[in-house]
Specification:
Blueprint (H helix, E strand, L loop, with lengths): L1 E6 L5 E6 L7 H10 L3 E6 L5 H15 L7 E6 L10 H10 L10 E3 L5 H20 L10
Parallel strand pairs: 3-4, 4-5
Antiparallel strand pairs: 1-2
Length: 145
């Protein structure tokens, strides 16, 4: 498991926990999701079937946090492996397979974890979603992860 702490100011800290995707580590998901306020779901675009991976992890997240609203940001890594595919297959998953309207689809970003501006952009998006949860806790447009 990876752990990081980012100081946002004098009192505010962002704690980031990375968990392995293998099933044998799924007990960690339970523990971390109990107190998580948001989720960055990182999908490897170079996998043999990245949309199936998205479905697997997204459905697991839904089952584990169904009792509360937890915003998610879907980050697609390794876009350089198949740049022609773009992000459309992931949008299509939420739109066509899950039947979600545009207002219910979580943000989907291309992100190279080695690229600080891209990571920062993902964290800014998550921060905006967390602020919306704080200000409008019962809003229908917030994604339940």
């Amino acid at each position: 498991m990876d752990v990081g702490v980012l100081a946002l100011g004098e009192k505010d800290k962002l704690r980031i926990y990375g968990t392995p995707g293998q099933e044998r580590f799924d007990f960690m998901w339970e523990i971390l999701l109990e107190q998580s306020k948001g989720v960055l779901l990182i999908i490897d675009h170079s996998a043999s079937d990245p949309v199936a991976e998205l479905d697997h992890y997204y459905q697991n997240l839904l089952q584990r946090v169904q009792h509360r609203s937890v915003p998610i940001v879907v980050c697609i890594s390794h876009m350089d492996a198949h740049p022609a595919k773009g992000l459309e297959p992931y949008h299509a998953y939420f739109r066509d397979q899950l039947g979600l309207g545009a207002e219910s689809v979580p943000p989907i970003l291309s992100m190279d974890a080695r690229n600080k501006p891209q990571v920062r952009a993902a964290l800014v998006v998550m921060t905006a979603l967390l602020e919306m949860v704080e200000r409008f806790p019962k809003a229908q447009h917030l994604q339940r992860a």
